[in-house]
TrEMBL record:
<dbReference type="InterPro" id="IPR000866">
    <property type="entry name" value="AhpC/TSA"/>
</dbReference>
<protein>
    <recommendedName>
        <fullName>Thioredoxin peroxidase</fullName>
    </recommendedName>
</protein>
<dbReference type="Pfam" id="PF10417">
    <property type="entry name" value="1-cysPrx_C"/>
</dbReference>
<keyword id="KW-0560">Oxidoreductase</keyword>
<keyword id="KW-0575">Peroxidase</keyword>
<comment type="similarity">
    <text>Belongs to the peroxiredoxin family. AhpC/Prx1 subfamily.</text>
</comment>
<dbReference type="Pfam" id="PF00578">
    <property type="entry name" value="AhpC-TSA"/>
</dbReference>
<dbReference type="GO" id="GO:0004601">
    <property type="term" value="F:peroxidase activity"/>
</dbReference>
<dbReference type="InterPro" id="IPR013766">
    <property type="entry name" value="Thioredoxin_domain"/>
</dbReference>
<feature type="domain" description="Thioredoxin">
    <location>
        <begin position="2"/>
        <end position="176"/>
    </location>
</feature>
<dbReference type="InterPro" id="IPR024706">
    <property type="entry name" value="Peroxiredoxin_AhpC-typ"/>
</dbReference>
<comment type="function">
    <text>Thiol-specific peroxidase that catalyzes the reduction of hydrogen peroxide and organic hydroperoxides to water and alcohols, respectively. Plays a role in cell protection against oxidative stress by detoxifying peroxides.</text>
</comment>
<dbReference type="InterPro" id="IPR036249">
    <property type="entry name" value="Thioredoxin-like_sf"/>
</dbReference>
<dbReference type="InterPro" id="IPR050217">
    <property type="entry name" value="Peroxiredoxin"/>
</dbReference>
<dbReference type="InterPro" id="IPR019479">
    <property type="entry name" value="Peroxiredoxin_C"/>
</dbReference>
Length: 209
C-alpha cells in the first residue's frame, strides 16, 4: 500500500551522524516544519550497489542542502556496522567521507512500516513461524515534505540502483508547484514551462512544447 499523501511513519532508532558519531534516538521528527527529507532504504552495508548510491547521494549533498532538503539513509544493519563502514576508506570497500545520517533498523520495523522489507513472516506446513524472502530492505526512496507527508515514493528491487538526479528533479518540481500553483508535466526540469491544471492550461502547454 502506497504511503503517498499520508504521514510518514515516525520512529526513534540508533543512527550514525556526521560519519563518526552514534546517536541512540534519531528521529525524522526533527525535520518537521523545517526541512523536506529524502529518506532512502538500502539493502546492506559492505555490499556492491549500495555504496555507489550512498556515495552518489553524498556527491550531490550540496544540491540537496541548497534546496533545504535533508538526506537520511537507512538499512537493517546495526549502528556499529554503519560506523565501521563509514570509517573504512573507499579504496578498501568503505564509504568514508559520507556525512549524512545512516539509521540502523535492526528490528526491521521501520522497513516494515514503510512497506519495503523484502520478505515476511509466514507459518510453514508444520505450523512453525519462518521468514520467507530476504530480511533486508528493498531500495525504497521517499520524499517527505515539511509537514511530514510523503509526496513521492519509489521501490526498486535489490539489484537496481537509483538515479539521484531524479530525486533533485522531483524536489524542484515540488518547490515549483508550491511556489506557483502550477503542475509539472512529463520530464519537466527547473526553469522550463509548467502549466495550470485546467483544459486551457494543458492546451496552451501542448501547443507551445
Amino acid at each position: 500500500m502506497s504511503l503517498v499523501g499520508k504521514k510518514a511513519p515516525l520512529f526513534k532508532a540508533p543512527a550514525v551522524v556526521n560519519g563518526n558519531q552514534i546517536v541512540e534516538d534519531f528521529s525524522l521528527e526533527q525535520y518537521i516544519g523545517k526541512k523536506e527529507v529524502i529518506f532512502f532504504f538500502y539493502p546492506k552495508d559492505f555490499t556492491f550497489v549500495c555504496p555507489t548510491e550512498i556515495i552518489a547521494f553524498q556527491s550531490k549533498l550540496e544540491e540537496f542542502e541548497k534546496r533545504d532538503v535533508a538526506v537520511v539513509g537507512i538499512s537493517t544493519d546495526t549502528e556499529e556496522t554503519h560506523l565501521a563502514w563509514l570509517t573504512t576508506p573507499r579504496t578498501k570497500g568503505g564509504i568514508e567521507g559520507v556525512t549524512y545520517p545512516l539509521v540502523a533498523d535492526t528490528t526491521k520495523t521501520i522497513a516494515t512500516n514503510y512497506g519495503v522489507l523484502a520478505g515476511d513472516w509466514e507459518y510453514n506446513d508444520e505450523d512453525l513461524l519462518t521468514f520467507q524472502g530476504a530480511a533486508i530492505a528493498f531500495r525504497g526512496t521517499f520524499l517527505i515534505d515539511k509537514k511530514g507527508v510523503v509526496r513521492h515514493e519509489t521501490i526498486n528491487d535489490l539489484p537496481l540502483g537509483r538515479n539521484i538526479d531524479e530525486m533533485i528533479r522531483l524536489i524542484d518540481s515540488l518547490h515549483h508547484v508550491e511556489a506557483h500553483g502550477e503542475v509539472c508535466p512529463a520530464n519537466w526540469q527547473k526553469g522550463e514551462d509548467a502549466m495550470l491544471a485546467t483544459r486551457e492550461g494543458i492546451a496552451n502547454y501542448l501547443s507551445n512544447n
